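Quick one: structure for this chain?
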Amino acid sequence: MISRNHALNALQRKAREYKHWEQWVKDNATEANSIDPTHSFYTLIDEAIDQLSPRQKEIYLLHRHERMTYQQIAVHLNIGRETVKTHLESATRAISKHVKLQLAVTMTAIHLLL
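Got it. Here's what it folds into:
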């Protein structure tokens, strides 16, 4: 009897949490894309790229968007290949840190709502 009651209570709690989550999504969905996880993820990455230093941003975009190699970027910008590598490593760390931080904040907010 006790196990049955615990199981029922757990199911009821999960149902309430799901209803709260659905309401939160409705309240915070200002447009159709705002609940698309892919869109949100790319928005986070774009925000992180915008926060990079001008040189890191330039090198990152040349490498990721223009698909240039380290050597091509070095020649294009008249800098050393190792400098390109250092800037890309720093940019990647900064982007990862920003995305992880924002995801942690979002997960904490969702957890507090439940």
